[in-house]
Structure formats: C-alpha cells, structure tokens
Amino acid sequence: MKVSVIGASGRVGKAAAFCLAEENVVNELVLLSREDSLDKIEGEALDMYDAMAAKNIRISIKASSNMEDIQDSHIVVIAAGIPRKAGMSRSDISKPNAEIVADYSRAIAEHSPQSIILVITNPVDVMTYVALKSSGFDKSKVFGLGNHLDSLRLKNMLAKHFNIHVNEIHTRVIGEHGDHMVPLVSSTSIGGILIKNYSLYDTLDIESMIKKVINAGSYVINKKGSTEYGPAYAIANIITTIINDEKRLFTVSAYLDGEIEGVEDVCLGVPVKLGISGIERIIRIKMNENETKAFINAAEFVKKATDEIMSNLEYF
After folding, report:
1. Residue ranges in the chain modelled with pLDDT below 70
2. I want to staple 79 with a disulfide (CB 3.0 to 4.6 A). Which of 13, 104, 229, 272 is the partner?
3. Confidence (pLDDT) at 18
4. Known active-site residue 161
C-alpha cells in the first residue's frame, strides 16, 4: 500500500507520517512539501528510516515536492495549510486554507484519481467539502479527521474521571470539529452500562468536560505552539483501519445527503463504517432531543461557513 502525505513539513504532517510508518501497514510513504521545504522533509525521511531500522520495519520513504510522485497512492492525506496559532479560531484560517486545499485536491484528481483523500487541514469540516468538490471524487472517497480526535479526548477524560481503563469507555462526539461539537452522552457507556445508569454518574459534570474537549486543542497550542501527537495517532488509526479493511466505526467529517436528521449538502462529523474502499456506510443514529437540536445547529453553522468559502473560491 502507498500513502502520500501533503504538508509533511508541518508538525502534524510529519508526526502522522512517522506514526503511519510505525504501524507497519504501508509499503511506500511519500512525504510532500513545497520546494522551499524539501531539504527539511528529506531530513525527516532519513530520520524516520533510522527509527524504522530500530523497529525492524521495512518501508520505502520518499521526500518530494513533485505532485506526480503521489501517483498510485491508495490514500492521500492533505495536512497542508496555515496552522492555528495561539488566540486564533479554526475559522480564522478558512479562506487561505481553502485555496490551498482546493489546489491540492485538483492535483490529486489529476495524478492519483483512484485514491482516497483524508483531509486534516482546519477548519476540517469546511475543508473536507472544498476537497470533495474540487476533486470531483465520490463522497465515499473524501472525508476529514472530523470528531475522531474529539471522541478520543472525551473518552480519555471519562476514563480519568471514573478511574477506569480507557478501553471500557465507549463514547462519541459528532457535529462540527469546533465549538458546535455534540457529545452523544445518551449513548455513552462504561463497560456496557449506559453512563446514565452508572453508579457514579452523579459525580460527572459533563458540561464542564465538554468545554474542556472543545478547548483541548487551544490549550495545547497555548502551551507548546501546536498539537501533533494526538492528531497524528488519530490519523494513523483511520488509515490503518482502511488499509486493513477492518470495517470499524469512526466519527469522521463526511458529506451528508439526508442520512441523519435530513441534513444535506454539508460535511460534518458523523459515525461511518470504514473499509478498504473508504466510507462504506454512514451510520444512522438516534439522539435525544437536545442532541438532535445541537446537531442541526452545528449543520447550519458549518453550512453557512462553507457557503461563504465556496462563493469566494475560483472555479466555483
């Protein structure tokens, strides 16, 4: 299997590439960057080779600034764009990143038309829509990181709160990857027990916890300048699942056409089944009244933001 990472000179891109190499499921890894960052990613490739030797992993790692080198990729990751800095919201970087994502998506369609596109660039829900429309790919072949990382963050916080192994926590965050994310508390369970029936449920301040999840990325950015390990391993989760055709459920940013609450023509974080061909099915879910209202609000917010960006993009 061949995977190409566009934006591999950035902290998330290079960390995702390293995690993916470490998973030992990829035969060929291509690190793409602009020409002025080529020396940097060549150094990253050499460094990764040393690490893989220590783990007895055989893999081909190529550094390049030529989009033709993504040819025959099974998956192309778009991690390129202007990163969020302290004090910035995801929407602050929408316009410049949309132009970057659109250009790369058209290039992917030209050089690797059979590939799957995984969008990481923020704001990820809007950028996923841009990539979908710019590439012309089927909606099953283009999706974003979405709320997968948010779901992992909530899972981790719940595990810490209840002092229970993280594998016993089953929860999911949907909606926007941002302020309008929606935790599915009504279906969250601990060891197979719905959280509302769990004996220590009264000790949980779920609203405060969700605020921490919403601001988790900003908190890390304020401390160290950017997030990298969390997104990188979340990306590797998704790609490994696709390559191994595992049929697992992930909350990714996917194009909706009425599957959930009649929401359509927008990309939002929703549970999907992933396999070798990409999204095999969007999972239709039942939510309580508050969750439904919050999900529809998220859809309206992201749809408005998406329409504004698309109206300003060339070729649309």
Report:
1. 84-91, 314-316
2. 13
3. 95
4. no
